[in-house]
């Protein structure tokens, strides 16, 4: 039986026994929080539990490394939608120790792509079209610095309202311990003090 068949069989039972009822909520995050985090499998249940979050508390966006690679890409769009359309009032970027993006080089991904049948010609076509694969497929060296960079990009985005606090944290994927890297309240408070002093 395939993975999808097993999932669909389980789903039939889940729906038939009305197990979904305990998860009822609205599309608006109860804690008014949007989280950008890594797609790491260890964080699937650990991160919400380590933060005391329940179904409906937050919007959670996941990608490799909790990285924003483009200020006008889908990650930033999702954050802005969460703020303007879904009433989120704070953003939290959460990276994790032991992330697979640390030290990742584009060459290893491109070699794996070739071994899986992607031709050199197709790779060259992308490069000739102006896509910098060496940058796009490269990770980072320090998770705390990467989180700080993502926080900075979000906070300074031209469509980001000044009053939104953007925090940065790093979670330990075995214990769930959170370390604060960027206190988003500090920048919001300094902006408010600057406005008051004018």
From TrEMBL:
Protein name, entry field: carbonic anhydrase
Class in the EC hierarchy, top level: lyase
Family: Belongs to the beta-class carbonic anhydrase family.
EC number: 4.2.1.1
Cofactor(s) the protein requires to work: Zn(2+)
Lineage: superkingdom: Bacteria
Catalyzed reaction equations: hydrogencarbonate + H(+) = CO2 + H2O
Database matches in InterPro entries: Carbonic_anhydrase, Carbonic_anhydrase_sf
Species lineage: Bacteria, Bacillati, Bacillota, Bacilli, Bacillales
SMART domains per the UniProt record, alphabetical: Pro_CA
Keyword hit for Signal: no
Keywords, comma-separated and alphabetical: Metal-binding, Zinc
Pfam families linked: Pro_CA
